[in-house]
Request: fold
Amino acid sequence: MKGYELFARTLNDLRIGPVFGNPGSTEIPMLREIKDYVLTLHDSISVGMADGLAQYTGTPSIVNLHTLPGVANSMAFIHTARLNRSPVVITSGQQDNRHVYYEPLLSHDLLSLVSDAVKYRYEVRNPEDIERSLKRAAMKSLEPPMGPVFVSFPMDVMEEEADYIGLAWKYPNTALVDMAEVEYVAKCIEEAASPAIISGSEIDAYGSMDDAVNFAEKVGCPVYAEPLSSRACFRSGNHRFAGDILPATTAMNMILMKNDLILNFGGDFTIYPYLQSPLLPGKKVITISLSPSFKYGEFITSHPGLFMRELTKIVKPKGDFRRPEDLSAGSVAARERRTLGMNYVLQKVRKKFHDYVIVDEAISASVAVRKNLGYRDRSYFTAKSGQLGWATPAAAGISMKNPRVLEIIGDGSMMYTVQTLWTVSQYNLPLKILVLDNQGYSILKSFSTSFYPGVEKAPFLSFRTNIVKISEAFGVEAREGDESLNELDWLAEGEMAKVLVVHVDKSIPKLFF
Amino acid sequence: MKVLIILPPFLPIDDIREIIRQILPDGEISTSTDFTEHNAEVLVATTFTRIDGNLISKLPNLKMIQISSTGYDNVDQDAVKSRKIMLCNIPVANKESVAEHVITMALAHLKNLIHFHNEILKGNWPVLTNSMDLMGKTFGIIGMGAIGRKLAERLLYFGANTVYYDPVRLPEEDEEILGLKFYSMNELLAKSDIISLHVPLTPETKNFIAEKQFNTMKDGSIFINTSRGEVVDEAAMIKAIKTKGIRAGIDVYSQEPPDFSSELFRLDNGYFFTAHSRGHHGKPAEVYNGNSRQCDEICAGTPASLQGAMIERL
Reply:
């Protein structure tokens, strides 16, 4: 069997697909037997789509990049997939081994290029490597912490012959729970005066929402979402849910001021921006995670959901926290109606799209998106890295498996990977996109106002685009919405892709201390 | 059509006469009901005039009564019905004034104005304050008529969280525009920091807020009544002020002027009184020329009713 046939056969065996990519001359040899291919008009979009799909399904997805330019173009997206803990198998072509000595066009040391962005990297040396390296990469991608892996394939290896072995493969078992650690945490809860729970992205990633809710119901403590979580962490409709932890240490300390024990299940302490307050001083912090970061406090390496399941059996109730009813939402939205403020728009969105998967890259409105749309199982995704341009490809990837996906994005973010709309149109993906157009980089204006006053007026932070025309040029129907926001009905109708642009309040929000 | 306008003598009659001359030239103003008979077909009156069977019997040609306010509890409705006389009120009258008055009372309590005023008059300089903001407080409106809506509109920009109860729930779009959340009566009483009452006085609403309702309120909450005194059980309110620390803002009383020997006026703390004054201006012409919609509505209300725009017909 030729190398390119081994490549296709292995992917079929792994049941991984489609292949997302934008090919070049180095990839043409390896793609000859690939039947399920999704073309994107920029390399990075392939990684973004694969990231969204992998996170949503919880299984590996695959990308094929065009050697040096393709990998280099995608580096920010690979980095994001790593932080998102997204099991993406990234492949690329490589120049013919016999040719590399002359440093030909497109050749480069790809393994060095991806070195700190992937958890496994390998360049095949012979055709026998093709099956085993791909299977190894797929299994490694799912090993905690999940994340992207990379395999490159020199052109000449694709022409060589080898047998397909049919190597056994299975995804790693993550069901790690140490009962002694469970008993230790139960004791800590019993001895604490006022524990609080932080629920992290691993809870959703490992399908542990039921365990998290059952534990919260039993123990009775408030449950917060991990700061800047990349996906849903808890069911925000549950009365134990107390809201998001904000990423600045000062804010974090204020939110958790009355709690002496912080139990962090499957989350991390993402901190931004830097403020002088120390992180959670004087508090006992225990993180239970399959991939702890070892940044702060005590750590238990364990499946967080299964750990909570066991803990629920022995823990004693420690309160009966019930989130106070939020009576401000209606009045805040009503106040913002005249200016098309984010809360007004998002309250309207919630009514129409409350059961959709939300992919969020409306950076300056993200707090409002989370608050107004809430968290449900596999219902909310955003880039953990903070990069722009990730959401449209990721939302497109998710829409391949779920026809009810709403991407909420700013005008600035939209322009990074706007050519994703071509792929969305070409493959008839039912993606709905709401662009909150505030004519500039509102998050940077807010940051400037707080830390570097005056810069927010700089002309390089403001711009105008015509996203309706751009969308239509890529074959996607688009409209602008007025104050009534009746166009949200139009956006929700049908299963074709649509873009709705709403010219929202341009005043600078106060997002930083 | 012969129109008789009965006004209380303390109003600036000359100013009003000038206004009436221009909009109701046939109108005759009287400050007394002390006449034996009058041939008026239309009677215009304020709530200061008791319109009972005796008065109606002195008006044999009467076809319509126009009350120049929202409330019409000064009218003997049985007597009106038996004569098949049309009774009209002006539900939009004074709505802005009342709404502002309610907010004034709420702020007076929240900002502890009387305490500060008295302390400073005594030569004291209070260092610590228990002054609170209206922003973020849960403001419950009982009765979402014209006044309730105007109050809700204003509260929106104070940043208050406004909830309401009314037997007839508003359309969803109206709730959205006003930022309102609908509650049952009990929920509203239990969850509000400030409660303002805007219901008409009818046989069903007499003592509408009584001991049970006061007991449901949060301790220390603010209770404002600018509707009608008899809607509230005064004894229960006094008890609630004493035992639950309810802070009351009272503009209306079961009898007006009230019995000043009542315990209500001898409590140590927790009250703020005004004299059913939020809708009455000493200088109506000035107000009329000052872009006040309320005077407009009152003055224009009568001819509008005469032309058939009946607001309430019995």
